[in-house]
TrEMBL record:
Cleaved signal peptide residues: none
Domain Kinesin motor, chain residue ranges per copy: 52-394
Annotated region described as Disordered, given as residue ranges: 1-47
InterPro entries given in the database record: KIF11-like, Kinesin_motor_CS, Kinesin_motor_dom, Kinesin_motor_dom_sf, P-loop_NTPase
Main location: cytoplasm
Subunit structure: Interacts (via C-terminus) with NEK5.
Subcellular location(s) per record: Cytoplasm, Cytoskeleton
Name the record gives this protein: Kinesin-like protein
Classification lineage: Eukaryota, Viridiplantae, Streptophyta, Embryophyta, Tracheophyta
Coiled coil feature spans: 410-459
Amino acid sequence: MASTACRNGIVQKGNSKSSSFKSRPHPSPSLGSAIRRSSSASYAGNDGVPGRVRVAVRLRPRNAEETVADADFADCVELQTELKRLKLRKNNWDSDTYEFDEVFTESASQKRVYEVVAKPVVESVLDGYNGTVMAYGQTGTGKTFTLGRLGDEDTSSRGIMVRSMEDILADVSLESDSVSVSYLQLYMETIQDLLDPANDNISIVEDPKTGDVSLPGATLVQIRDQQSFTELLRWGEAHRVAANTKLNTESSRSHAILMIHVKRSVVGREEDLSSEINHASHLIKPSKPLVRKSKLVVVDLAGSERIHKSGSEGHMLEEAKSINLSLSALGKCINALAENSAHVPLRDSKLTRLLRDSFGGTARTSLIVTIGPSPRHRGETASTILFGQRAMKVENMLKIKEEFDYKSLSRRLEIQLDKLIVENERQQKAFDDEVERIHLEAQNRISEVERNFADALEKEKLKCQMEYMESVKKLEERCC
């Protein structure tokens, strides 16, 4: 881990290795299969799989203003992509070196950023884990470009949000699975629904037993295709609060939070070992329906800013204060988690309450910190880098949550019951038909016997009459 090679954020001499983003979050096959075979309805009690927060750095190229203003100055950062290191210059002869999980130059493509940073998290979500991808950095350093770019004019510029949904829809089966989306903004410590602007004060609900956070008042839209998702993003982005500052002409004044809920049907098999006298038998129960509910959270944080540089005043000043306070609360939580503190101040901000599963929780988390090259903003760049360094020390415990799918079982039992009813009716009709056939056959036989008996009786009667007549005739002849 980078934390073993760094002290106070500075790389020490000697060899050090950084963990790769590309490792899949789920455990080894043997452990994974054991998890899938578990008969418990929920995996909340499972020990989980360790997963450190992965952190990447992305350098923004100089903009037009910096090209002119900083023409006589070198960039304040130097990237060593092969070593996954970044040098932050103090002056012309001294610099601090930091190591991250990945370092992206200003020429890095959106596709590469997605595949390295976000795709492993998306794969985790499809496997049943919760996942978080978050962008942090000074205002104007490319957070929204990295995460929320729609790519209407240039598909290669598509951001992490769009690419994530493409991979999710390509992997799920919409016949048995479901994908739904909420899109929110945290503005001035108020959670607002970007898909329903009238819904501007959503409450956070925490499960007292598990601590899980939910937003039952948020709009939840089921996604069937990529186009409808893109339209939702466009609609939500149009309602996000933004303003023109000295540092950024379209400065986001709120934290945007996209939540993608994935529900997948899986089939588990419950195994039971039972022993009899002098004999052990392995009994395998029929497969049972399970459902995996996972969530991908993509967080586009509003940029930190220094008031004397951004020129914010009036209401914009209050917005900037709120942004900085929430980012400060997040930083305090990261520090507490990195230092294994007994108390983590999660309740100091709604942002930290929403992200409690992302840092120190059960989610697979990737953080991308965005920085600019300008030496005039070296202080903000240093603060961003140190935030990323501390985040790398946070360890999560990834857990799959599988629940018994009662609805699926109920539907299956209803189908089986309908089949049994139809089969029972068929057998009953066959039985009734057989009884009727036997009854008719018996009646026919009885009628035939009665006819035969009547015929025999009539014959016997005629025979007796004939014999009687002959006897009378003989007696008359004797008398004469």
